[in-house]
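hey so u asked for the seq, here:
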Amino acid sequence: MYKRCSCKDGNGRSLGAECPRLEQSKHGQWCYRIELPADRAGKRRPKRRSGFATAKEAQKELDHISAPGPRCWSTR
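ran it, structure tokens below
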């Protein structure tokens, strides 16, 4: 899990996780990335989600996705 924002530097480039304001609790959004099992062809299946207001919300969904058992994967 990580936190990032859409602030830009003086050249218009996104600061992302390098923004100095990310230390503020109300600034930025929480994200996660997980590597799902490879598909039948052996290709990687990374899954990324962002837009969580808190780390707790992101962790809750990450725990749900990484829990063992049958799953029907869909994108929102």
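The chain has one domain: 2-66. The beta strands are 2-8, 14-16, 29-36, 45-52.
lmk if thats what u needed
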